[in-house]
Design brief:
Elements: E1 10-14, H1 15-22, E2 31-32, E3 42-48, E4 64-66, H2 92-102
Parallel strand pairs: 1-3
Antiparallel strand pairs: 1-4, 2-3
Length: 117
């Protein structure tokens, strides 16, 4: 895998995106565009399992994970999901510390709690 800060743009896609756009063939190694008016410039290096984040009964959204090091200047916010056991308030300080290790200018503003029984 290309190291962080490399010049290549790399991404991971979920199974839902891979199935919709590539059918039964492997998307690994294919190049995709991020947006309808942009040229293809991001290489798919892997596929991750589908997950539901907001609605258990809803459809699985198509997702792409990109390296933030090459795209951070083009986005206004980032959502981070963390799976933990117990009360999330007890680990928020640790999560904030990890974000600061990556970039001390980033601000962690909210914590949403979801519980699925």
């Amino acid at each position: 895998m290309e190291r962080l800060g490399g010049s290549r743009r790399l991404c991971l896609v979920n199974e839902a995106l891979a199935k919709e756009y590539f059918g039964g063939s492997s998307p690994v190694g294919r190049i995709l565009a991020q947006g309808t008016k942009r040229p293809p410039n991001t290489e798919i290096i892997g596929v991750f399992a589908d997950a539901k984040y907001h609605e258990v009964r809803g459809t699985v959204p198509r997702q792409i994970f990109i390296g933030m090091d090459s795209h951070i200047r083009n986005i206004g916010g980032v959502t981070v999901y963390a799976r933990i056991q117990g009360d999330p308030r007890q680990v928020m300080a640790q999560l904030r510390d990890q974000v600061r290790r990556i970039d001390s200018n980033l601000v962690v503003t909210t914590c949403a709690r979801s519980t699925i029984n």
